[in-house]
Automatic annotation (TrEMBL):
Keywords: ATP-binding, Nucleotide-binding, Transport
Residue span(s) of domain ABC transporter: 9-246
Superkingdom to which the source organism belongs: Bacteria
PANTHER family according to UniProt: ABC TRANSPORTER RELATED, IMPORT ATP-BINDING PROTEIN
SUPFAM superfamilies per record: P-loop containing nucleoside triphosphate hydrolases
Gene Ontology CC annotations of this record: membrane protein complex; plasma membrane
Record organism: Actinoplanes italicus
Keyword Magnesium: no
Protein name stated in the entry: Putative ABC transport system ATP-binding protein
Coiled-coil ranges per UniProt: none
Keyword Transport annotated: yes
A GO term, aspect molecular function: ATP binding
């Protein structure tokens, strides 16, 4: 059945080249991809396949050299830097491997930061409610140094979700965590999709993390080369990834 809803993010013939002449490297090569509302997509592929470039360009953090990125119905190519910043603040959330919390701010202040940067006053109870949703009630006044790695990542998730963005981009969100903390983070991301129809695009090397998603998009040499449903499980995802890495190594 055709889905006529506006994608949370769409890439059309997205191309990103770094450098010029003989030194030019094409990190994205005419990629077409749609990320529908309320879906969870994992992006996987060998090192240098274009995963991070897809994330950065899809989120409006980097400009394409060809093609188009459309975020929540808005083509970003023609936006000024100021307009693009406003769009990111209101419609895009970010979760990174390194957490990227502000050390001097409390958990509550970190969560409220995107709203304040956008000139919006948090609704009463909104920040405490987000921290409760990620299991951090009672930690509102703690600074990042007083929290475990898993707790810091949960603050980062609450910060990313507090504005209810059109899309949340997660770059290796479990990469710095132990297995138990990583599983808790993945559970929170999954719950955001299932309960709030949040759209999530997650770059990962971990097949266990990828199996949490609705689908897994595979990249190689800057191109989409395959797709699997996350429901096939971590073992099959790992096998597919290994084959892809082997084929890429031979080609190079």
């Amino acid at each position: 059945m055709t889905n006529n809803a506006t994608p949370a993010v769409e890439l059309r013939a997205a191309t990103r080249t770094y450098g010029t002449g003989e030194r030019a490297v094409t990190a994205l090569d005419r990629v077409d991809a749609r990320f529908e509302p309320g879906t969870f997509t994992a992006v996987m592929g060998p090192s240098g396949s274009g995963k991070s470039t897809l994330l950065h360009c899809g989120a409006g953090l980097d400009r394409l050299t060809g093609g188009e990125v459309i975020i929540d119905g808005v083509p970003v190519g023609g936006l000024s830097e100021r307009a693009l910043t406003r769009l990111r603040r209101s419609r895009v959330g970010f979760v990174f491997q390194a957490f990227n919390l502000v050390p001097a701010l409390t958990a509550a202040q970190n969560v409220a930061l995107p709203l304040r940067l956008a000139g919006r006053r948090p609704q009463p109870g909104a920040v405490a409610g987000m921290l409760a949703e990620v299991g951090l009630t009672g930690r509102e006044g703690h600074r990042p140094s007083e929290l475990s790695g898993g707790q810091q990542q949960r603050v980062a998730i609450a910060r990313a979700l507090v504005s209810r963005p059109a899309v949340l981009f997660a770059d290796e969100p479990t990469g710095s965590l132990d297995a138990a903390s990583g599983a808790a983070v993945l559970s929170l991301l999954r719950a955001a999709v299932d309960r709030h129809r949040q759209t999530i695009v997650m770059v990962t090397h971990d097949p266990v993390a990828a199996a949490t998603a609705d689908r897994v998009l595979f990249l190689a040499d800057g191109r989409v080369v395959g797709e699997l449903p996350g429901s096939v499980g971590a073992e099959r995802i790992a096998l597919h990834t290994a084959r892809l890495e082997g084929a890429t190594a031979v080609a190079r």
